[in-house]
């Protein structure tokens, strides 16, 4: 008697279930960016994603699970975008400009939640075990900016005694915490390009963040 092939049950990876999770995480990012964690309602997130309050639990077991999944997904997606932006440029100034311009030319839509980053960092400090994946991604983030720092040192634009790892972490904090805070406090009418330009000048001296590169 031939053995029956085991049939995998559940939604395939490329089914509507994956798209639903994406909608839920985007809705969650929006809510968690605007309010304290305790004030965010799972029902409100579900409604924004076009689901009922009960249906959200078919995808995420709890609000904590949704928060962590959203943070990891956003961070991993943005990290991949940053890696590509840096890899496509040669000089450190062009690499820095390319990273900053991701706030303007946000192709994935995940750079529009700047205030989610400090919320995640606060939770990481309080519970490192649950946020171990985020901590690992944070180190990967810093590694990308270490490439920019190393390039600036190699070109003689930064002193060679500068600790590269520390400088990379500081650049991450300046860009994603500093810029994120300014973008949030300036409101919906903020001129993102002006903030990017100012950040580029402060970090890179003669760096221009304009699209033309002039």
Automatic annotation (TrEMBL):
Residues 1-22 are annotated as: Disordered. It comes from the Bacteria. Keywords: DNA-binding, Transcription, Transcription regulation. Pfam families: TetR_N. This is Transcriptional regulator, TetR family. The keyword Oxidoreductase does not apply. Signal peptide: none annotated. Residues 41-60 bind DNA. InterPro entries: Homeodomain-like_sf (IPR009057), HTH-type_TetR-like_transc_reg (IPR050109), HTH_TetR (IPR001647), Tet_transcr_reg_TetR-rel_C_sf (IPR036271). GO terms for molecular function: DNA-binding transcription factor activity; transcription cis-regulatory region binding. The lineage of its organism: Bacteria, Pseudomonadati, Pseudomonadota, Alphaproteobacteria, Sphingomonadales. The keyword NADP does not apply. Residues 1-11 have a biased composition (Basic residues).
């Amino acid at each position: 008697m031939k053995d029956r092939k085991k049939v995998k049950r559940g939604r395939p990876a490329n089914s509507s279930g994956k798209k639903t999770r994406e909608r839920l995480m985007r809705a969650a990012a929006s809510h968690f960016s605007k309010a304290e964690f305790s004030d965010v309602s799972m029902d409100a997130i579900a409604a924004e994603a076009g689901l009922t309050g009960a249906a959200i639990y078919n995808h995420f077991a709890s609000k904590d699970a949704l928060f962590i999944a959203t943070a990891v997904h956003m961070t991993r997606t943005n990290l991949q975008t940053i890696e590509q932006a840096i890899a496509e440029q040669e000089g450190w100034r062009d690499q820095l400009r390319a990273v900053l311009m991701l706030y303007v030319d946000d192709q994935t839509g995940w750079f529009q939640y700047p205030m989610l980053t400090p919320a995640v960092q606060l939770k990481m400090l309080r519970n490192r075990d649950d946020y171990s994946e985020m901590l690992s991604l944070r180190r990967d983030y810093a590694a990308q900016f270490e490439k920019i720092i190393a390039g600036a040192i190699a070109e003689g634009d930064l002193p060679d005694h500068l600790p590269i790892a520390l400088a990379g972490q500081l650049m991450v904090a300046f860009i994603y915490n500093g810029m994120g805070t300014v973008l949030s406090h300036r409101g919906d009418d903020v001129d993102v390009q002006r903030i990017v330009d100012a950040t580029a000048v402060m970090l890179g001296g003669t760096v221009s963040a304009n699209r033309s590169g002039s």
